[in-house]
# Entry
Amino acid sequence: MTARPGRDIVSRLLLVLVLVWTLSPLLWQGITSLKPDSELMQLSPLLPSHPTLAHYRALFEHQPFHRIMLNSFGIAALTAMTALVVGALAAFPLARLPVRGKLLMLGFVLGATMFPAILTVGPLFMFMRVLGLRDTWWAVLVSHTTFALPLTIWMLANFFRELPEDLYRAARVDGCSPWQAFTRILLPLSRPGLTAAGVLAFIFSWTEFLYAFTFTATEASRTVPVAIVLFPGLHEIRWGEIAAASVVVTVPVIVLVLVFHRHIVQGLTAGALKG
Amino acid sequence: MTSPICEQTPVKRGRRALAAALLCLTALQGGCTSQPPSGADDTDVVTLVFRHGKLSGDLRPLQDLIRRFEATHPTVRVRAEPLPSNTDQQHQIYAINLEGGASGIDVLAMDVIWIAEFARAGWIRPLDDLFGPGQRAEFFPNALEAATYGKKIWAVPWYIDAGVLYYRKDLLKKYGRRPPPTWEELIETVRIVLGGEQEPRLYGFIWQGRQYEGLICNALEFIWGNGGDVLRPDGWTDLTSPATTNAVTFMRDLIHRHAVSPSLVTTADEETSRHLFAGGRALFTRNWPYAWSLFEQEGSPVRGKVGVGPLPSFGGGPAVSTLGGWHLGIAHDSRHPEAAWQFIEFLTSPEAQKVMARKVGIAPTRRSVYHDPKVVASQPILSTLQPILERARPRPVTPFYPMVSQILQSEFSAVLAGLRPPRTALVAAERELLHTLLLERL
Amino acid sequence: MPEVRFDRVEKRYGHRPVIRDFSLTIREGEFFTLVGPSGCGKSTVLNLVAGLEPVTSGEIYFGDRPVTYLSPKERDIAMVFQSYALYPHKTVFENLAFPLRLRRVPQGALQGEVQQVASLLGLAGLLAKKPAELSGGERQRVALGRALIREPQVFLMDEPLSNLDAQLRVQTRAEIKRLHARLKTTTLYVTHDQEEALSLSDRIAVLNKGAIQQIGTPMDIYRCPSNTFVAKFIGSPQINLVPGRLHPGPPAHLDVGPVQVALVRDPALQADSPTPANSLDVLVGIRAEDVLIQGTPESLPGHSASVVDREPAGARSWVTLRWGSAEIRAEASSDFLMPQNHSVGVAINTERLHVFDAASGARLPWIALPPKRQHGYK
Amino acid sequence: MNRQSEARTGYLLLFPALFTLTLLALCPILILFWLSTRYRVLPFGIDAFAGIYHYVVLLQAPRFWNSLGVTLYFAALSVTLELLLGLAIALLLSRQFRGAGWVRALILLPWAVPTVVTAKLWDWIYHPDLGVLNYLLQHLGITTAPVNWLGMPSLAIHAAIIADVWKTTPFVVILLLAGLALVPPDLYRAAALDGASSLQTFVHVTLPLLRPILLVAALFRTIDALRAFDLLYVLTGGGPADATETLSIYAYKILFQTMQFGYGSAIGVMMFAVVAMLSLLQLWLGRHDMRRLVGRLP
# Structure
């Protein structure tokens, strides 16, 4: 399109404004994490005059932050994998096999993503208590499955559905059982869909707070978001370390978003547009 | 030409990597949960896990004490794990950890209001066998009362708190005023001093009106001081009595009618109040004893200008302070109760209390410490405090205290913010309180 | 290679019937084509044979073996899809080898068979490529190869040529015909293109709305369409259907356009229906090549027509004529240059007239008397 | 039999997922309803029948009505702002320009940031003494004294809404950008040839074609905003004076700070009813446009 130059400048300005609004809070947290304590207690200068990594060091010295990072990573990775495996298994029949009640099942799956977590957290707490799972990875993993699984089922069912139906038919005629057609033809072709679903499940689990907060108690299972909320401050809030921890927990998702941007967008819009 | 094997290799490789990653993760998970992160303890050495939080001031004296304990008890190691600063979150962590056992905690510091709850839930051990009447005699009786539930004693008072009034000696002297014995006089003094100073940044009276447990402490001081009550000893409520209603109305009026307290008290906690007063921004403040040594520390703008005394009363009645403080108990599932008890005995010993009193500025729970010359020399405030602490009143000792507190926080806060008239709020609170108190009869 | 037999097969989606009372036998080694407009159910028949969809009732046999309830795998069939359905993540080699791998053919034999099929179809140089790197024609041949390689009992093709451009289509058509001549596999071919059907098939079934209209050799169907649907569907340009009136006589004759044609009962269809008592409205089918434009109207009195439109089509032209009250198309040589409204003489090859009942569209058992025995007008 | 065996494979493959979801999503909801009729205090072993008494108390409790109001206000205002802002940003980004891909990826970042981090970073920005917001406002001469953003009931809820808008607008932008990409470019050309101004093009071409997606975005966001927990819990904890206490936070406090699983579940059930009613209402209002969504279900 041809735009008049004046209009172009206005839209460019607006664009800059949007980026400032979007990114400056994040940048500010990054700047805060680099300020020494003395500069945190006053507000000019805005930028650190003596940038320091002290808060990052403190993070790993004052509490077992590496352990907490490992919890977060392990739980998120296992959640994503579980959801992918179980979700792909379920998505295939929903997309391709002659099972009854598909609409009902899809409604159930969609409904499960819409339940507020606060409704299930109480009863799940009772499950965990009975099974003795509190403060273990399992507790968090299992609870994260409640939103990761519907997500992957929904996204993958859509994805399988959009692969040409003839491919599945061809595989069947060539001699595949439904299962073989799934594993040898549909799955290898679904790498983009699997990536999108996996990355989203990972991000959701990595950032989840309510379940992790409720089912964990110690560094045996505490995840990074929970650790940020429960910073052991004695009486003042350690803003510098909180900022450092925020950066540490945010950088992985930023990398994921920048690398898998297309997949994520596809995944997020799958339910809404191509549903 | 293409070999058919080529096509499969990357897939297989990928699969193998995935399986390996999974194995690693599960191994790590198993490895880490089955043993504490710091490594397993050996046969003879016992490791105690001590969880505590909310220690104002310097942490080092406590660490030194623990080192000293370890030196005298070579078979015991203590791992101190501080909790988050927010008391509600501490409570939740305890609840989640202790519920159902296998908490890994041995010794825990408890807010005085949790003891009955923890006792009823079976999370801590009764200490009657270890903590005999002879040993108790030296402790403040009100602190012991708060640690008694179902005729058993569940925790040893570690340090004690009571609400006190801090005032600016210099300003009162300048206007020829005395520390106000009544609330009425406090209002008058504030008017005179603020009127004279003409300093917009100077506030009159700062207290804790934020929606949290501190608000209940403040409110109870007004309510009890006015002869009202929340939960009567007979287990019924007294929330809607005129005495209680008037007291709550008076709190609101301090802000909205008398204007001696700025509206920011509705968001102030201890630290906000302390910072304001320490910055010379208030004439009076209500706070706990811990604040005194911080006001008096080097570099403080109000150093040497601060006086401390009992809270005012209504029309010459008795002044009442809310009893606060932290107690030490033993987790029910502790595998080393003997060592845990030795540690508690040590931390509550006169020697340890003296150290904590002198170096941290917290109030000891043993009366004898108040007469120790070295302690008195470094913390002269203690002699002023002792009668106040002696009279301080524990909040209702009931396992349902957290629920009671939740209800009251919400309604008191609404009153202070001007969202609901006191009467309406108290009626609502009473209805919810009765609903909760039904639990006690189940 | 067995025959494929349908015995009263029905297929419904919910309550909507898509295949009705479908009985048909495809002979051993035959190249059989199902042709019909889109939505006539021809692809559904293919899916039923393949086992990709269940039948609602009826039976399908391969030889004597009922296969109605077997899975596609157990039926031993191969299929070429309109979209080719090549596995995009596999090389050409792996695409061809896939059906063999599923049958656990040993590596050595597999290599050999793939090479053989590849050289047969001229794919030898493409084995390492992925489908995305191939041209349309190459993809089509890979799809064919994947079907051929198993030497299946039955070969199914679902519009395999419709995604090719015109030139390639004709070329591939010839190739398929040659392959079939060589392999003699029973083949069921589905297309909407009547020309393709005519040129490839041993026999054809014309389908409309889920029902068979006519089964026969290409010539049978072209020469003797059993109803107006078949008549219109087969042949290009479309057959002229001119309203007329049949007088059973005697003598039996037909009024069509400005002419009268003497009729006799068709000996082949004689027994089927009784002679109607009264005259009735009919549609008379006349193919364009049977309308001959012959110089001026004067030379053929009563057979004059006027030119409405002229469409040159290379070697010949199609000319639309006003003939009596009807419009008909005629085939003319490319040098036919008469302008619009010009009058021309027209001769109808009455031997190839088709008479259909105007009400039902069904073919009526009447044919024209041979010209020499025509009475009346010359 | 071929068909039935295919279906059997299907049920077999569906089983793990359906079992998991039934156990972890459906059962808890049913248990929630059951718990709401009981007195249940886990640590004390209290477990007794309460009937509808929890509901009776709840409906008379000002705190409940307050939290319902806060929930609705928070959801309504934040979703409205997100849709407006999201639409504006999406229109801006839908144009082709250099680095569009990068900008679209960067714009997504707040969505991916853990909500807890969002809360903490806004908490820091809003800090009355040390926050950069007060610093900037005072330096620009907009305010003279520091504002206690999270301390005042009337400000706190709006401060929280702004943080929520910051975090979730990217999601709306992504949806709407995908929607805009589906508008055939020929329509814009036709509108331009017909002499439509850009406003007219927006009103008559873009908006009607975007409507179904706007509705979907509104539905998703409303459901999400109604259940918002993390942000408010960390940013304000529901205070001051319950001004930011949504139903989620109310329920959580009763459940896990006082361990009253019966009463807390009753709040949960009320919340379930509110979310269900509002989403059904939205689905009904957008039923014609939603048909597109439902029509393309797998």
